[in-house]
Recover the amino acids of this structure.
């Protein structure tokens, strides 16, 4: 190796180092914003969650160690919101995950007019959650709501036929409107959320379905597998990563539900739609006490819960041998 | 997967058509109601074919139909309604926020993808860590910042929060796009004396435009929909966004002017639906690209 060549290599490596250092300038704006508006708030909330702290008396912050966490787990006012959120998850997520899969598989099988059908089915996705919520408040209205009329009509018919069979009335329509009845309100919110968000899941499933190679189905058909067998032995296993993603996103979304009940019912009637994040919001900003420390501990408990659940789901997301 | 029999295909089509009609039924109902008076709506006559019977002066029962009116729309744009303000604020936030997030985010993505500086991996992992943390955790810290920096009740405050919140997604998607670009193209440009900035602006950005479009749609929809932060960081009517504003208009018009509320809701969803139907292909592509990266 000649001296000249060594010289060029040194020059190149010095140039490379200078070049690579340019990278800092490119990530700088993002990092300033990120530290200021994401990293700092995350750390600050973590810190506050160990303090009794209110904006009204910023000087009287008191270190209480884990007291906030103990309080959030044991205090009675938290039990309702916690239960309501779990109840919402329970009635919302299974149909949200399964029905969207059924619709996606059907959409994927249709050739003619599929763009037309897709456009109709995806339309509610682009309407913001707040606009959808207000729309469904009208839709559920006890005096003129179309959904209300449909429910009353159905209940009346069920009762009529039940009466003819000799059973008493079994269905009770919500007299005060879907959102005014404690046993109907959460169901009403779940139906609205389903309508608003189901398109997202369908899109995800469609992307997954289109990735499945056609040869697999051809081979199965040659082997004489029926449509159901092909769905069970090819579509479902091939779609497992997508199903995992949809389940995860749906569960996280359900735990964090806030805007829809806040707009539609404000937590009522009788606190039957008060959710976990709404409780957090109320503690921090609504009851006039600005208990930011306690509210922070609620936020971190939620983050922890979501994190543990994701780990658990990831464990489940293993191919079946 | 194809369905063989004709009967099977027709059944599928009919089921999907019913699902599609159910999806758009609430929209149609709102459109119908927006042309009715408050009294007609409150009496349960929302649909245009709804009739009622009245006894005239001769004692005859006559079937009548409510007249359709555009008065509701006139009143949406009256002084009393905040809708135009909310609309403007939301559009401004969504457009400015999307462009800023795309610009700042793809700069960072370029930095992470194309420069091997010390700490590249660590800093990127730091970003990765926060993706698991729900945005609700940042709510209280950001609320304090808004007060300390006098950003409360300012559009700029929301803008900064939204851009920061959208950055992660842009960085992740665009980093993958930029990594996959062939090094030879860049080397050729560098030999011709292009600066790193020129390489970014004249090579990276044009090649990554599909990714940028997908990120842009996701960011736009995210800001357009955002409710929790907009609710918490504003209190004055002139800085409210559409999601919070529509909730306020619900209480303003709901009890005594339900027709105006119908028209308000219609005007809140119509523009975005029209845009969606026109750009449907890109919407679907953007939504699926983003969700797969999460």
């Amino acid at each position: 190796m000649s001296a000249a060549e060594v010289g060029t290599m040194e020059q190149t490596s010095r140039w490379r180092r200078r070049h690579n250092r340019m990278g800092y300038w490119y990530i700088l704006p993002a990092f300033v914003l990120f530290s200021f508006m994401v990293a700092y708030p995350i750390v600050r909330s973590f810190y506050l969650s160990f303090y009794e702290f209110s904006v009204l008396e910023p000087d009287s912050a008191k270190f209480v160690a884990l007291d906030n966490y103990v309080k959030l787990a044991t205090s009675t006012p938290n039990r309702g919101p916690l239960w309501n959120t779990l109840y919402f998850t329970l009635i919302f997520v299974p149909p949200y995950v399964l029905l969207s899969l059924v619709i996606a598989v059907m959409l994927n099988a249709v050739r003619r007019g599929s763009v037309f059908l897709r456009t109709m089915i995806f339309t509610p996705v682009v309407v913001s959650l707040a606009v959808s919520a207000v729309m469904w408040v009208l839709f559920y209205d006890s005096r003129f709501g179309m959904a209300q009329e449909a429910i009353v009509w159905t209940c009346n018919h069920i009762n009529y036929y039940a009466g003819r069979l000799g059973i008493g009335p079994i269905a009770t329509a919500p007299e005060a409107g879907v959102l005014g009845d404690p046993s109907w309100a959460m169901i009403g919110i779940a139906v609205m959320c389903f309508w608003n968000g189901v398109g997202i899941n369908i899109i995800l499933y469609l992307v997954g379905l289109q990735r499945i190679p056609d040869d697999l189905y051809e081979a199965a058909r040659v082997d004489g597998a029926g449509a159901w067998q092909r769905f069970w032995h090819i579509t479902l296993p091939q779609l497992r990563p997508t199903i995992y993603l949809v389940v995860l996103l749906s569960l996280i979304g359900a735990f964090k539900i806030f805007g829809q009940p806040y707009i539609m019912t404000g937590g009522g009637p009788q606190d039957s739609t008060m959710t976990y994040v709404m409780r957090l919001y109320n503690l921090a900003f609504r009851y006039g006490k600005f208990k930011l420390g306690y509210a922070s501990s609620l936020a971190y408990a939620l983050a922890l819960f979501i994190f543990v659940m994701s780990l658990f789901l990831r464990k489940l997301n293993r191919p079946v041998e | 997967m194809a369905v063989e029999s004709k009967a099977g295909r027709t059944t599928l089509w009919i089921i999907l058509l019913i699902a599609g009609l159910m999806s758009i039924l609430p929209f149609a109902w709102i459109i119908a109601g927006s042309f009715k008076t408050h009294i007609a709506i409150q009496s349960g006559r929302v649909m245009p074919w709804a009739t009622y019977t009245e006894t005239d002066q001769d004692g005859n029962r006559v079937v009548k139909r409510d007249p359709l009116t555009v008065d509701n729309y006139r009143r949406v744009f009256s002084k009393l309604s905040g809708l135009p303000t909310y609309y403007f604020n939301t559009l401004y936030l969504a457009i400015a926020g999307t462009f800023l997030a795309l610009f700042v985010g793809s700069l960072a993505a370029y930095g992470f993808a194309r420069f091997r500086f010390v700490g590249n991996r660590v800093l990127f992992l730091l970003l990765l860590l926060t993706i698991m943390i729900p945005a609700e955790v940042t709510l209280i810290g950001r609320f304090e910042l808004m007060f300390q920096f006098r950003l409360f009740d300012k559009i700029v405050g929301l803008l900064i929060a939204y851009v920061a919140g959208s950055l992660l997604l842009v960085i992740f998607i665009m980093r993958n796009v930029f990594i996959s670009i062939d090094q030879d193209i860049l080397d050729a440009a560098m030999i011709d004396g292009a600066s790193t900035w020129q390489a970014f602006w004249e090579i990276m950005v044009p090649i990554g435009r599909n990714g940028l479009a997908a990120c842009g749609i996701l960011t736009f929809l995210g800001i357009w929909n955002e409710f929790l932060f907009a609710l918490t960081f504003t209190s004055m009517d002139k800085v409210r966004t559409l999601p919070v504003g529509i909730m306020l208009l619900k209480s303003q018009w709901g009890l005594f002017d339900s027709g105006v509320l119908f028209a308000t809701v219609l005007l809140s969803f119509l523009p975005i639906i029209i845009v969606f139907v026109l750009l449907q292909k890109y919407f679907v592509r953007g939504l699926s690209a983003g969700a797969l990266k999460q």
Notes: The mean pLDDT of chain B is 87.
